[in-house]
Amino acid sequence: MKGLLISGGTKVSEKTLLENIDGRYIIVADGGIKNLIGTDIIPDEVLGDFDSIDDVGREFIEKNNIKIKKYPTKKDFTDTELCLEVLLEKDADDIVILAATGTRLDHMFSSMFLLERLKKENVAGRFIDDHNEVRFISNEEVEILKNNYKYFSIVPVSKEVTLSIKGAHYDVEDFKFNRYTIRATSNQIKDDAAKIKIDGEGFLILSKD
């Protein structure tokens, strides 16, 4: 089963929403319902402590008879993590998380590491907003296609990683660098695709501008 988790960060465009529905089970974290107001997209459920949903959001939920599950404000999990747990309980093996970036850096950075959890549980996971896509890569070789994204960057999570890149403007082979230096930022795919091999762990970030 494929899942789509809509978080409560900066609102994404309807275009981004439509590009990522793809027959997915849609679950919304609390105030993330703002992303669906004014669209014809109806989620399967909304959950959270409902402390960031305004009257318009509540009306949208009631009007469309959307399933809700309410949690106390004081809890051990963020609303985004609660949504993720529901999708994993439903045996989702591919999860896209939308609208998890924005002005709250504490939520954004902590949520990004949910991608590491998904990787370790063999679940495909991606963060997507209107400008970026984030994946967690770990001791593997990946191919990225030249599509809507102009740049790609590798941000190490391991203290040190070894990186090989082919098919990009800046190719490297067995290049070692650590997480407190900026050495793999704003590369570009030269032709149709680029291959990245990483020994270690990090975030692969694709950016449009």
UniProtKB/TrEMBL annotation:
CDD domains hit by this protein: TPK
A molecular function GO annotation: thiamine diphosphokinase activity
Domain Thiamin pyrophosphokinase thiamin-binding: 140-205
Keyword Cell membrane: no
Pfam families in the record: TPK_B1_binding (PF04265), TPK_catalytic (PF04263)
UniProt keywords, alphabetically: ATP-binding, Kinase, Nucleotide-binding, Transferase
Tree of life domain: Bacteria
Claim: Transferase is one of the keywords in the record: yes
EC number of this enzyme: 2.7.6.2
PANTHER family named in the record: THIAMINE PYROPHOSPHOKINASE
Gene3D superfamilies listed in its UniProt record: Thiamin pyrophosphokinase, catalytic domain (3.40.50.10240)
Segments forming a coiled coil: none
Annotated gene: thiN
Annotated source species: Peptoniphilus duerdenii ATCC BAA-1640
Catalytic EC class: transferase
Gene Ontology process terms (BP): thiamine diphosphate biosynthetic process; thiamine metabolic process
Protein's name in the database: Thiamine diphosphokinase
